[in-house]
Design goal:
The structure holds three protein chains of three kinds.
Chain A: E1 4-7, H1 8-18, E2 21-26, H2 33-42, E3 49-52, H3 56-68, E4 72-77, H4 79-84, H5 86-94, E5 100-105, H6 111-116, E6 126-128, H7 133-150, E7 154-159, H8 160-164, E8 166-169, E9 198-199, H9 213-230, E10 234-237, E11 244-247, H10 250-265, E12 270-275, E13 277-279, H11 283-289, E14 295-298, H12 306-314, E15 320-322, H13 341-356
Helix pairs in contact in A: 1-2, 1-7, 10-13, 11-12
Chain B: E1 20-24, H1 44-57, E2 64-68, E3 83-86, H2 92-102, E4 107-113, H3 114-120, H4 122-130, E5 136-141, E6 144-145, E7 151-152, H5 171-174, H6 180-186, E8 190-197, H7 201-220, E9 224-230, H8 234-237, H9 244-252, E10 259-263, E11 266-267, H10 272-275
Parallel strand pairs in B: 2-3, 2-4, 4-5, 5-9, 8-9
Antiparallel strand pairs in B: 6-7, 8-10, 10-11
Chain C: E1 3-11, H1 22-25, E2 31-33, E3 45-47, H2 56-60, E4 66-77
Antiparallel strand pairs in C: 1-4, 2-3
Classes of the chains: A alpha/beta, B alpha/beta, C mainly beta.
Chain lengths: 357, 284, 86
């Protein structure tokens, strides 16, 4: 496919299909609805299925069932719908089912929900945060790859602007390497062999009663730690000699990048550190990128969520300040006054002034 | 009436030494073990036997996927030699939907209790039926939340005593039971809906036929199929195990009436003769 | 008095939980609970002459304790009682 102007929602759906996603289920809710519409339009013509589920709980349930049979499957919603999905996300993580979930969020207030997990028990989701539609095309395909590679759910954190902004994109199928066979997948074929499967989250086995959840979840914890050690991703620009390092993710980081380049062109030493994975959070890289800075300024569209991870990465070596905040529109969809290069620049300049004093 | 003390107890540890043909096995071929910790007199393992025999008889063992709810019966999954997916309480029908859409040639069934399906998961099973998903949902209905100790569910009948309806379910205070098979049968997407029970051998035979017909309905592609199976729970019912079948027949079956409610997509009246099957008189 | 056994059963008494569902299920009424106990401390069913091999006990047992057989030739238990398995 050549370069075409399309909304982020459509680009994501095309990217998923390029990654051989064959199942999607969802429930309409702003600003996720267009993603559901795009899948509904595209999947039937690509040997796939898209179902309007009766609620978000059933949407993730259906995607769970599809993924458990070995098909690449996805679901999504916005923050409130994701809230309904939390019990299932916890179970899916602990059952090692590879599922991709899209949060087309209303701003950045779902950071805690995405990275801490609102479900029960010990689990983590991988979280990818694209900066624009072009990166979303790549990260969507990466999400399916990582999900299969680790047998683990991956959440893609988008937002209203990503969903609705039109951008010129090319849906290039990306290759990320070989993947193991899905011999764990339930397709009925081992019935009657004595080796039939049970995809479950607590360690139930066939042929013997009794379970050992502690051992089972302990192994999952080891897998989680391996993911944490290997899958952190980030982008850093101008941090090597920066006095102020701005930390931002998603669409807001696109604005921050603009401000950083503008200030750099004027000789101001500022840098941008953009986590691409919100979990695993690129703590080591952030610590390394900020050793020489005077301030780390966290720009996020919420009351202060990612700033916890920033502080945990820096551990007091450099003062961490917030230059973000709750910023949204009259409908609460996250199109707030903070999404403005002039406003952001003003806040950065405020930090520069304070740091110089 | 025979005087049983005159007759000798026969040896039953080994197979007979006289020429004989085995007509019944300890357990179905698709059952891996017989060891379970469900209560004495529980009807759920009886229903499991029916389910596995039907899959075997239809030759669908290598083409079946079961989605299991959460209740006492969940512990039976270690015995089932069919590919399974464990779902959350109430959430098996949606998982079965996704699995069936990706594996349309497989037999997809759910196995759920009444607390699971009719309380937590009522929305889910109704929508799955309305959409006509080609899956078979199987309900094990004992009128209580067994695994948590025997509390009222949406199918508990009026007058039934449970841990939280200790004086008996009262319509004013606790509301009325939901007759789920009747609701399911009304939906356009439902091809087959029946209610059976496991309180005696004859009822077990009729229930087996319901399950066979439900599975055949699915494999023909005739929409959603549903079988409710009334099972004994003497623990949840506060009665001795031997009284379980009578309780089921006298208390549960008059409300959750037995029979085929819908077949081939057409509603039918429950067979009045089957609704209250008589128990064989004991000769003692 | 003669009693005829057309069938017989094998009973896995060690896993019987003493629920007694098989007793009324048996139409010829040839099962009765033992006075002895299995290793779990529970009574279990014993078989008397007159079994028809109908499978009812097998069907109603929640613990899969029954295996059922039908004899090629029915066994006649005369007044001098003949054991099915010497």
């Amino acid at each position: 496919m050549s370069r075409r102007l399309m909304e982020g929602s459509e680009a994501i759906a095309h990217a998923a299909i390029a990654a051989n996603c064959r199942f999607f289920a969802g429930y309409p809710m702003t600003p996720f609805t267009e993603l559901l519409e795009s899948f509904a339009k595209l999947l039937p013509t690509h040997d796939g299925v898209c179902i309007n589920a009766e609620s978000e709980i059933e949407a993730i349930g259906m995607a769970w069932g599809a993924a458990a049979t070995g098909a690449r499957a996805a679901t999504g919603s916005t923050g409130q719908g994701l809230a309904l999905m939390q019990e299932s996300l916890s179970e899916i993580s602990r059952a090692s089912v590879p599922l991709v979930i899209f949060n087309m969020a209303r701003g950045q207030g779902d950071y805690y929900q995405a990275t801490r997990g609102g479900g029960h028990g010990d689990y983590r989701l991988m979280v990818l945060a694209p900066v624009d539609a072009e990166e979303a095309v790549e990260l969507t395909q990466l999400a399916f790859h990582l999900a299969d590679q680790w047998r683990h759910p991956v959440l893609v954190y988008g937002d209203y602007l990503l969903a609705h902004t039109s951008q010129a994109v090319e849906i290039t199928p990306s290759k990320f390497g070989e993947l193991p066979d899905k011999d764990w997948a339930v397709d009925g074929s081992l019935g009657g062999t004595g080796r039939s499967r049970n995809v479950n989250s607590i360690g139930m086995r066939k042929g013997e009663k009794g379970i050992d959840p502690e051992a089972f979840w302990g192994e999952l914890q080891e897998k989680t730690e391996r993911i944490a050690a290997t899958e952190a991703r980030f982008e850093a620009e101008g941090c090597e000699d920066a006095e102020i390092v701005i930390v931002a993710f998603g669409t807001l980081a696109r604005f921050a990048r603009y401000v950083v380049r503008e200030l750099r062109a004027e000789g101001v030493r500022v840098g941008l550190f953009r986590p691409i994975t919100l979990w695993p959070f690129p703590s080591e890289a952030l610590a390394a990128a900020t050793t020489g800075a005077r301030r780390v300024a966290v720009l996020e569209q919420n009351a202060g969520q990612m700033i916890d991870d920033v502080r945990l990465s820096i551990l007091g070596r450099v003062p961490v300040v917030s230059i973000g905040g709750i910023s949204t529109d009259a409908a609460g969809f996250g199109i707030g006054p903070l999404l403005d290069a002039k406003v952001i620049r003003g806040r950065v300049e405020g930090v520069l002034k304070e740091a110089a004093a | 009436m025979s005087d049983q003390s005159d007759l000798q107890v026969l040896e039953t540890t080994n197979p007979p030494s006289q020429p004989a043909r085995q007509t019944g096995e300890f357990h179905p071929g698709l059952q891996l073990t017989t060891d379970h910790d469900l209560c004495p007199g529980c009807g759920e393992p009886i229903a499991l036997r029916i389910l596995l025999e039907c899959i075997e008889e239809l030759g669908l063992a290598e083409r079946s996927i079961g989605v299991i709810g959460i209740g006492c019966y969940t512990a039976l999954t270690s015995m089932i030699d069919v590919d399974l997916i464990q779902a959350l309480h109430g959430r098996a029908p949606s998982v079965a939907t996704g699995a069936k859409r990706m594996q349309p040639n497989n037999l997809l069934f759910t196995l759920q209790g009444d607390g699971d399906m009719v309380n937590e998961g009522l929305q889910e099973v109704l929508h799955t039926a309305a959409r006509g998903e080609r899956v078979t949902c199987i309900l094990l209905n004992n009128g209580v939340f067994g695994e948590t100790g025997g509390h009222m569910t949406a199918t508990t009948v009026l007058g039934q005593r449970t841990k939280n309806t200790i004086e008996g379910r009262d319509a004013d205070y606790h509301g009325h039971p939901i007759l789920i098979t009747d609701l399911i049968a009304q939906l356009g997407g439902t091809g087959f809906a029946a209610r059976g029970s496991v309180h005696d051998a004859a009822a077990i035979g009729r229930t087996r036929r319901h399950v066979m017909r439900a599975f055949e309905n699915q494999m023909r592609g005739d929409g959603f199929s549903f079988v409710e199976i009334l099972t004994m729970c003497p623990t949840g019912w506060f009665i001795p195990t031997a009284e379980g079948p009578d309780y089921l027949n006298d208390v549960m079956a008059p409300v959750h009436r037995l029979g085929e409610l819908k077949a081939g997509g057409i509603l039918m009246d429950a067979d009045p003769n089957e609704a209250l099957p008589g128990r064989a008189e004991s000769t003692s | 008095m003669s009693v005829v056994s057309r069938g017989t059963v094998r009973i896995a008494t060690e896993r019987c939980k003493g629920c007694e569902l098989c007793i009324p299920a048996c139409k010829p009424n040839v099962l009765r609970m033992s006075t002895r106990r299995n290793e779990q401390g529970l009574a279990y069913p014993e078989l008397l002459p007159g079994c028809t091999g109908c499978n009812a006990c097998l069907l109603v047992c929640p613990d899969f304790c029954f295996e059922v057989y039908q004899f090629d030739e029915p066994i006649i238990h005369d007044g001098v009682v003949k054991e099915a398995n010497p």
